[in-house]
Specification:
The chain is α/β, with parallel strands linked by helices. It is built from 10 helices and 8 strands. A hairpin with a 2-residue loop joins strand 1 and strand 2. Helix 5 crosses helix 6.
């Protein structure tokens, strides 16, 4: 077997295991009350997510997290549990903090976790607004591409520090990032020695990542039809192995990029739908292990 084959063996094993295992079914899709559908947001997953949010029995609130001269708007959802809970930082896609990202936070809360989803476009919309204030989805995506990396890192650090001080938080912290947010989840793991678990959904790490700085397990979730992102896996797998760190990437064959969101659509395709179901089951199982 060639050196390259040996390098990819853990990834191939993880892929096969994911396809053969029958993961436990996660809690059904839930929902929030404070709506915020942006102008120009299309029907489909977005409107379905907003419906789930509107019927959710859980407590949700908007908070303002201040650091330096920045104010970051964040959406927080609390679980209905007896004991203090692990907190999950949800990092949105390059679409900004839309209804789907907030519904992810609510679903995490439905399963027993405090979830905080910062709007990393806070102050970037016309008039100093947030994601919901962009005229179109394309405008929000364009603005994401212009965010200074140092500002994003500082925003996430401030939100995480805030979340750990919540009276009902148990002090443990995890992250789940999607698409652009998946790349930010890698950066967050590189910067937070107090992180218990990082979940990277179809996101690439920085090219110059110093994997020795990562103190927690990193779980990767990738669509089989996403060569742009999957082409980074060989390097990240090798880097994490060389640093003696835990990286467990799983490829969901037939699924595309953004399968967690697209898999919720009625016409999202069976591969995306199956990958989203398996991805949620894997995420919840990993969080349950991290909080114990």
């Amino acid at each position: 077997m060639s050196p390259r084959s040996l390098l990819l063996l853990p990834l191939l094993i993880a892929t096969a295991a994911a396809q053969s295992a029958a993961p436990p079914a996660p809690a059904p899709l839930p929902g929030d009350r404070p709506g915020q559908t942006p102008a120009g947001q299309q029907a489909g997953t977005a409107s379905a997510a907003l419906t789930r949010l509107e019927i959710s029995p859980r407590h949700q609130e908007w908070v303002q997290v201040k650091h330096g001269d920045r104010t970051v708007t964040a959406f927080v959802v609390y679980p209905e549990v007896k004991d203090k809970a692990l907190t999950v930082v949800v990092i949105h896609e390059n679409r900004g903090l839309n209804d789907w990202a907030r519904a992810v936070a609510d679903r995490l809360a439905a399963n027993g976790y405090i979830a905080i989803a910062p709007d990393l476009l806070s102050g970037a919309a016309p008039g100093g607004g947030n994601t919901k204030d962009f005229a179109t989805q394309g405008d929000a995506t364009a603005a994401i591409g212009k965010l200074p990396p140092a500002q994003v890192a500082a925003d996430l650090a401030a939100v995480a520090d805030y979340a750990k001080t919540l009276p009902s938080a148990n002090g443990k912290l995890a992250v789940a990032g999607f698409c652009w947010g998946g790349g930010q989840a890698w950066r967050f793991a590189l910067a937070r020695p107090d992180l218990a678990l990082a979940n990277v959904f179809y996101g690439a790490p920085p090219a110059d990542a110093d994997y020795a700085k990562i103190a927690c397990p990193v779980l990767g979730y990738y669509g089989g039809n996403d060569a742009r992102i999957n082409s980074t896996l060989e390097k990240s797998t090798a880097g994490m192995k060389a640093a003696d760190k835990t990286f467990e990437p799983v490829i969901y064959e037939g699924a595309g990029h953004a399968f967690m969101r697209n898999g919720e659509e009625a016409d999202g395709g069976t591969a995306n739908q199956a990958a989203a179901t398996a991805g949620w089951a894997r995420l919840l199982a990993a969080l349950a292990k991290a909080r114990s």
